[in-house]
Amino acid sequence: MAKRILVVEDSPNVCEMCVRILRRAGFEVTSAATGREALQILQSTPPFDAAVIDFALPDMSGLELADLVRVNSPAIIISGYLSPDDRDDIAQIENCEVMLKPFQAQDLVAAVKRTLNL
């Protein structure tokens, strides 16, 4: 059975790229464009195995969402830029990894597999 991944990214191009990469790698992928949409999905579906979350969402911090999601699954925060303070904040979240944009397809797949201990 394929592992379920939630991608939360407000940029349509980046979201679609992540979804395609992860589906090609054999994951079942659901996407959301906002934190609120992601929370609705999380409440109405079985738990996900991992989440890939943009750091700067339009309606909430990606960190805030990762903190809520991590209760059920590990998270990977993706961002184009993170300050040292941002990195410190992310380090406080258990089961959370960071990837800086732009990244290679194989790096995203490797990060998800590492997060899932595959």
What are the SSEs and their pairings?
Blueprint: E1 4-8, H1 12-24, E2 28-32, H2 35-44, E3 50-54, H3 62-69, E4 75-79, H4 84-91, E5 96-100, H5 105-115
Parallel strand pairs: 1-2, 1-3, 3-4, 4-5
In short, what is this structure?
The chain is 42% helix and 21% strand. By secondary structure, it is of the alpha/beta class.
Output the CATH class name. Alpha Beta
Q: Largest sheet, described in full? A: 5 strands, parallel
Total number of domains? 1
What is the correct CATH architecture?
A: 3-Layer(aba) Sandwich
Task: Give the SSE string.
Answer: EHEHEHEHEH
Q: Which percent band covers the strand fraction?
A: 15-25%
Describe this structure in words.
This protein is an alpha/beta fold. The protein has a five-stranded parallel β-sheet with strand order 2-1-3-4-5, sandwiched between helices. The longest helix has 13 residues. The mean pLDDT is 90.
Short key terms for the protein model shown above:
118 residues, alpha/beta, Rossmann fold, 5-stranded parallel β-sheet, 5 helices, 5 strands, globular
